[in-house]
Give the backbone structure.
Amino acid sequence: MRILLGFAVAAAAFAQDYKTWSDYGGGPDSSQYSSLRQITKENVSQLKVAWSYRIGENKKYNFNPVIVDDRMYVMGAGNTIVALEAATGKPVWTWTPPADTKVITNRGINYWESKDRKERRLLLASNHALRAIDAATGKTIESFGTGGSVDLRVGLDRDPKLLTVLQSMSPGRVFEDLIILGSATNQGYGSAPGDIRAYNVRTGKLVWTFHTIPRPGEFGYDGWAKDAWKTVGGANVWSEMSVDEKRGILFAPTASAKYNFYGKDRAGHNLFADSLLALDARTGKRIWHYQMVHHDIWDYDDSTAPKLLTVKQSGKTIDAVAQVSKQGFVWVFDRTNGKPLWPIEERPVPKTDMPGETTWPTQPFPTKPEPFARQTFTVDDLSPFLSPADRAKFRDQILSARNEGLFTPPAARGAIQMPGNNGGANWGGAAVDPFRGTLVVVSKDVPCLLKLDRKMDEVPGLTAEERYESQFGFMIASDGLAAIKPPWTSLTVYDLNDGSIKWKIPLGEVPELAAKGIKNTGTHYPKVGPVVTASGLIFTGTRDRKVRAFDIENGKLLFEQEVPMAIEGIPSVYEVNGKQYIVFCASAQVGLIPATQKPIDGAYIAFALP
């Protein structure tokens, strides 16, 4: 009893840190957790729509709203940023990006305020430039950078004119007076390097840079071909990062080096690609790292934010960081030193048969926790809903391709990938109760067929016989359903105190199948994230146009309501004038809207108790 009471008191002591949603994912630690308790297991079934804000265009949106005091910041029509009254959804002001805007950070936004709260800024990127907006007025802050922006293509030791893709769709992280950014480099040869960079939030001045593709003399340089840093790109953080504010540690999960599927020009293990980096958030200096994939030729990026939580093992309290992956793995480390909480084994993996390629002989496998996604796909796993023609096609593909498990190398005759490089967990796809050691994961199983063919375009450093590109495709039937038997999307809850799975259920449905009475399939292609509340609830939306709440202890469905549009992104939990809300970003999706129904504008939909 004393132990449980002490645990509760410890949780209460930190609860005030999670009452707001003033940053992407709920806060710097990316917990996707709220300490608000007004909505409970007993009353969640009474939730009603409190307000909605129509975006005004039929376009895909997946923005995680940020709420500060009584203001909410969202993305609106035409890539605008809109300030809303958080209690009513009424617009307050609108910021319009430059007229030539083609790309903009569309998953969330960064908020910063000075210690006296007199200065308040929103920071986002568009057209590969970092921009600052006055959070009170919606005006561009002209003193930031040059005329209100900083060119992110500058400072990478590459010709900025040749860097056609750089900016991430995910926001960075604010720490003290810094905005720390990753990037979304191109997928092919000659992509930009994935440097992690920190800028001053007031001036836009570059403060520090960490080279994820090491330079001569830097740690990890010997893990690459000589001078690879001059031509090879990637090893970038295109997705989400987390910050331990107490310790000043940035946790950054990196992507594969480029080109994704063939690595003749980047021989070696390719540190710091596919790694969890722990960096000093003030200086960018490396504290520790762990590489999850050596010499990645599968596009197995770590794309979900590292989750910070406290666990108990053998009576000892450990501040941990948990990283979930596309492969379906859960990696758990002591966040202070990078020591794994459970053993990780280096196991032999299949060798490549592609000319010029040299695969790494082993790959790391966590012995615990158990994976949350399926990692093999054979003819025995084919969906019962396939037509005879599709069944025959997929059967032939499986039997003719290389199919040797999770690390089957890409091949000219094809290679099976499962859960696929767009499967497992992706951005926004995990949440934690940071005090109880609970991890919640939304994952999808999407088998892929990956073939390599000769690439005709010139590539620096490679001969015509050494240039390859992928012919990549999801194994999807003519009716849009995956070739593998369901569930296609799952919701899994772990107890990371002992590394066990508490429960696992299919998440969502396919409306066309549900109409025929076929349920518990899981929805298709989710780009949604869960949130957890201190009252023991998990909230998430899905592309089947439904909002749901589950009991975190057992997975029991406690609330379900259909909305006009598919749900995208991470919901936000907040409180205004003593009333708790949860707001979802809903956007119309082709294929989920009945053919007889006209396209619907996207919207933000907020729920609250009556």
User: Anything to note?
Assistant: The radius of gyration is 23 Å. The CA atoms of residues 490 and 506 lie 4 Å apart. Helices lie at 2-14, 388-400, 511-514.
